[in-house]
């Protein structure tokens, strides 16, 4: 976060806090206090008020977006771009020439699509993400198959019964998915329509990798996409806390933390 240098009103501060919450999976009191140059108690009161108004979910150390809220993919793509690029590069290295893969619409998976195009390897890629299809299409060696469906414009993704039915006809070596959050129960998602696409990809792929940055650890959203045991591995940029590490280990889900 960039620290605010000029004094702002209480209303302006709360509006900027909401912008941070909507752009990120979670915000912490200490970080916000440092950004706005105020006390942690002031930030705590701000978060309590915004929570009572239903504008965020109040957590012990900060706040998270409402359960059914997901920021626009264009906003999310700009966040933690370095961390997500490292995650994407590590995941892309898994793909062997000639494999068939599935990639769901998302910000971190968009980084993956760019990394895969850079590798210039022959493969078949199935996606419901328009931005992802465009990124993959820049590599002549990648055959890109775009799912049909109804456009979810903020997520640049195609969703709905047609998308789900189309995916059910296909097979893949690997699926790569993102998520709004990751808890000991499994990856979580703000939008049901997006969650159903992920489930279809998981079902039709031999292995599934979750790509997620550390800001989404222990973030609850509206739906649990699948149990941790449905994931072959998780790629992230920082080690999760002990409870999450133990849950992943207990589910026999691999964990790769990129440097």
Give a nutshell description of this structure:
The protein has 259 residues and is of the alpha/beta class. It has helices at residues 10-23, 29-36, 40-52, 73-78, 81-92, 107-119, 130-136, 161-168, 192-204, 242-250; strands at residues 27-28, 57-58, 62-64, 100-103, 123-127, 142-146, 150-152, 157-159, 172-177, 181-183, 186-189, 205-211, 223-224, 233-236, 254-257.
What does this structure look like?
The protein is of the alpha/beta class. It has helices at 10-23, 29-36, 40-52, 73-78, 81-92, 107-119, 130-136, 161-168, 192-204, 242-250; strands at residues 27-28, 57-58, 62-64, 100-103, 123-127, 142-146, 150-152, 157-159, 172-177, 181-183, 186-189, 205-211, 223-224, 233-236, 254-257. The protein has two domains: 10-64, Arc Repressor Mutant, subunit A (Orthogonal Bundle), CATH 1.10.10; 73-257, Rossmann fold (3-Layer(aba) Sandwich). A seven-stranded parallel β-sheet has the order 6-5-4-9-12-14-15, with helices on both faces. A three-stranded antiparallel β-sheet has the order 1-3-2. Helix 10 links the parallel strand 14 (233-236) and strand 15 (254-257). The longest helix has 14 residues, at 10-23.
